[in-house]
Amino acid sequence: MRKSRFATVWASLSLGMAAWLAGGFAVPSLADEGMWTFDNLPLQTLKERYGFEPPAGWADHLRLSAVRFNNGGSGSFVSANGLIMTNHHVGADVLQKISTPERNIYESGFLAETPEQEIAAPDLEINVLVGIKDVTNEVNAAVQPDMDDARAAQARRAAMATLEKKSLEETGLRSDVVTLYQGGRYALYTYKKYTDVRLVFAPEFNIAFFGGDPDNFEYPRYCLDVCFFRAYENGQPAKVEHHLAWSRNGSQDGELVFVAGHPGRTSRQFTVAHLEYLRDHAFPLLLSVLAQREADLKEYSQRGEEQARQAKEDLFGIQNSIKARTGGLKGLQDQALMARKAQEEKALRDAVANDPNLKDYATAWDKIAEAQKVARRVQIDYSLLERGFAFDSQLFNIARGLVRLAEETAKPNEDRLREYRDSNLDSLKLGLFSPAPIYPEFEEFKLARSLRYWYDQVGPNNDLIQQALRGERPEAAAKRLVGGTKLADVAYRKELAEGGRAAIESCVDPMIVLARLVDPAAREVRKIREDQVEGVETANYALIAKARFAQLGDSVYPDATFTLRLAIGTVAGYEVDGQTIPPYTTYEGLFQRADLKGNQPPYVVPSSWIKARDEKRIDLNTPFNFVSTNDIIGGNSGSPVVNCNNEVVGLIFDGNIQSLVLDFVYDDKVARAVSVDSRGILQALKHVYHAANLVRELTGE
């Protein structure tokens, strides 16, 4: 999801939020609030508020039609032949990797007229959720009464790995134990996996992201942010039983609609101390890194057209993250929002203190607060070494992956780092052995800048950086590392992986040597964080969750975890500063906005659209984008919007600027999900791109 300027709009949002939050803890959750797991849907709310009772099989059909992209987005099957719809910006990673200087698909678009013309994605994995099983008792049974939080966390991780391995062996399906309610519940999610995925259609970048960074997270919008892929099995288009029908009529103002997608992460159940850590430390550090990288990527892009092409997707991703995190930080700095959180927390703590059955939970908040002190202490080293802020390089990531693969697979499954468990190895190797292009000049530039950032953070006397740089300046070290490594060769990577620990330990490739050098320190700080921060949080958030369950029952939904959720809502405009924002935009509005902005980047309408307009092939009254009250967040990009008949009426691609508080609290007054209208997509496919075969597959026409 993308975003844009927010200063003046945020001021009005803060006033609106202040009024809404003033009611305190007694204010009930808003009607459309919730990112609901598919085994706990708000059926009573649907019946009471909307008079809708889903027929038998409705939810299962939607669940099995929804897909998850391993690059952090959502999508859905929209034909029986494995056709998948998502956003252009979700597919952008693939579009970038399959583009060349001679054929820039990311920029100019693509249409496969026949299956033979569809282009394979180099490292894309698609997941379909086929099963959910509560394994809370099995995970918690591994914890013994005498264990401290760190040992308890290790025991839970081992139990989760064992459950995942057993499930994988029994079903052959990808198996992930998901932590819900910050440790209040654990569920085994099993997924059917597709790794042969091919590009079918993508529009030009200029129409997919019309308005660019200035209009990101704004509304009204005019974007055809859509992309189609196809899943294959055994070299043939996958035959899928569950797929969504296409609505030719689209949605109506006020209509009930649903979003099935994979929201990434929210923090609505975090304690005040945890939110204060994010506000005062985590977000500011991340934003400082992102700002530096944005400046670096802009500098690199100025070297030439090819350099700009290489950096474009990274730059847009960085700019998107900056704006999203800046908006989140503004939310945490909003006194009304934090006061609401404090009131809610006090009310729950008072309830716990006054209930003899809950008294054992009373210290949970204080223990989480202590854990945030540890998080603050290790923040810099953890971010630099384990999260890789010091090593902005695809080649380094490959090197670290190979070093850890050799180390971890030599251990029992239950003792490994989570990402190297048996149930995840195939997915990990898909990325590790990806044939996607690597650009040495770009790698050297990024690594030099991130090594310089590390050097500036820790100083010249740090032993580890002295060893890493070998007395060189960061720029010279980056040149040596990138120029000397052979890791761009996939065959060489596979050879090292097959050789195991012996091959890695004897390898003199400079990037492998660097990864070996920094890995012990990275593992050490990771262990501190896992044991003294995450372990404490998991144990004590589980107690807080039990207290919430005791007060509210199963009407509580868990924070987002990049797992499949259902969000309900209605198509609805909103009002800001006395101005009414209607729910729909049209094709005509696209051309008007381009004219208003002088038809200059990023407000350039592609020539294909201008030609279609001039030849009167398109209806300028066609709905293009629309907004709804569905509760979404980053990760929902590419989610289908469906009506009560499970027909596609839209495609989520963004939220408005007022939605940036949704990380922490839901709002349906002005926060909105932004979608591409199904009618807008179909009109473009028919009359701009002449994609007759694709239209026929979607609609039967």
TrEMBL record:
It is an enzyme of class 3 (hydrolase). One of its GO terms (molecular function) is serine-type aminopeptidase activity. One of its GO terms (biological process) is proteolysis. The keyword Hydrolase applies. SUPFAM superfamilies: Trypsin-like serine proteases (SSF50494). Its EC number is 3.4.14.-. Keywords: Aminopeptidase, Hydrolase, Protease, Serine protease, Signal. InterPro entries: Pep_S46, Peptidase_S1_PA, Peptidase_S1_PA_chymotrypsin. Pfam families: Peptidase_S46. Belongs to the peptidase S46 family. PANTHER family: PERIPLASMIC PEPTIDASE SUBFAMILY S1B (PTHR38469:SF1). Catalyzes the removal of dipeptides from the N-terminus of oligopeptides. This is Dipeptidyl-peptidase.
